[in-house]
Design a protein that fits this description.
The chain is an alpha/beta fold. It has 2 domains: 3-136 and 209-262, no CATH class; 139-204 and 266-296, no CATH class. Helix content is 52%, strand content 7%. The chain is built from 15 helices and 5 strands. It has helices spanning 3-34, 36-39, 72-82, 97-100, 103-109, 118-127, 137-150, 157-167, 183-195, 207-210, 227-239, 245-251, 263-274, 279-288, 290-296; strands at 54-57, 62-65, 111-112, 129-134, 220-223. It has a 5-stranded mixed β-sheet with strand order 3-1-2-4-5, with helices on both faces. Helix 1 (3-34) packs across helix 15 and helix 7 crosses helix 13. The longest helix has 32 residues, at 3-34. It is globular. 31% of the residues are buried. Mean pLDDT is 88; it is low at 44-49.
């Protein structure tokens, strides 16, 4: 393939990606109009300041809303590396998980909008390049269960205890610190918490509530299912905003960590795990995540074979 053929191929690829983005933005705009009464409601107490989920950088001029369970950790790594300030590592994937989630380290390299005065955060939201990455809601819910409960993350140890107390009270013992809970129990717990009016944990809170996605609208909507191609476009755009030659040389080789998407692996578990969920609970999940499905253009997955 000669240079002209390569250029033509790259142009066609870029045109296709831009067309996808135009389609996603239109779906988001249409959904925001259709669900205006929902998305414009005041957030629950925990989410009165959703700007705490928005990272920004004045040099690269972006605002990124971090959605848990959508490659959030690797986006943190990549955005930190693109500042050129963290020189201990040469690639994003080398930054330890604990370090990138340490607030003092993160805030040193990445700004958070809720630390600014309202006027200062508002003009950045309206002027900077705004991007978000989202995921099929039921797949994201399953991923959260596996990460936080199946793999027994310490900061989520109270949830499995709470689930056993609610649904298997005879098995509860004060001396037991961790329990094995089923995915069906977890889904029931999420639905019961929602029905009771409780604020859901951000890892399974609807993505449309994690971020204020409608005002102003996001310019780039990445999907976890097309992560590899979507991140390439965003990282390239951010690199183009580095004008200092020395810093440009420092970050020119930076790429988003490969293998960040485990969609194929998760897809293999979807029917297996959701086959244990009662049909009425599947329908309740569709209702819980209805706005996410509408705003981000996802279709209900056939997770049981009955729909």
């Amino acid at each position: 393939m000669n240079i002209n053929d390569t250029q033509s191929s790259d142009d066609a690829k870029l045109q296709a990606m831009n067309s996808v983005q135009q389609h996603r933005r239109q779906i988001l705009a249409d959904g925001c109009r259709e669900y205006a009464d929902v998305v414009n409601k005041p957030k629950a107490v925990y989410w009165q300041a959703p700007l705490s989920m928005h990272f920004y950088d004045d040099q690269l001029q972006y605002v990124y809303c971090r959605v848990p369970k959508v490659a959030n950790t690797n986006w943190r790594r990549t955005l930190i590396m693109l500042t050129g300030k963290l020189t201990n590592y040469s690639r994003p994937e080398q930054i330890p998980f604990e370090l990138v989630h340490e607030k003092t380290v993160r805030y040193k390299h990445i700004g958070v909008l809720n630390t600014l005065l309202p006027d200062d955060s508002d003009w950045r939201l309206r002027k900077y390049f705004k991007f978000i990455f989202v995921r099929e809601p039921l797949e994201r819910l399953l991923s959260a269960f596996r990460d936080k409960l199946l793999f027994k993350k310490d900061d989520y140890k109270d949830i499995d205890v709470d689930i056993v107390q609610k649904y298997r009270p005879r098995e509860y013992r004060p001396s037991v610190k961790r329990y094995n809970v089923t995915f069906a129990e977890f889904v029931r717990y999420v639905l019961d918490e929602h029905a009771a009016g409780s604020v859901l944990d951000r890892h399974w809170l609807p993505q449309s509530k994690v971020c204020s996605v409608c005002e102003p609208l996001f310019e780039f909507i990445g999907h976890y299912e097309t992560l590899d191609t979507d991140v390439e476009l965003v990282v390239s755009k951010l690199k183009s905003r580095v004008h200092d030659q020395q810093q440009r040389r420092q970050v020119d080789h930076i790429t988003f960590p490969s293998g960040s998407s485990h969609t194929s692996k998760t897809n293999g578990l979807m029917k297996q795990m959701y086959s244990t969920i009662p049909a009425q609970h599947i329908q309740a999940l569709y209702k819980l995540y209805a706005v996410d499905y509408a705003l981000f253009g996802y279709e209900h997955p056939n997770v049981t074979g009955f729909y």
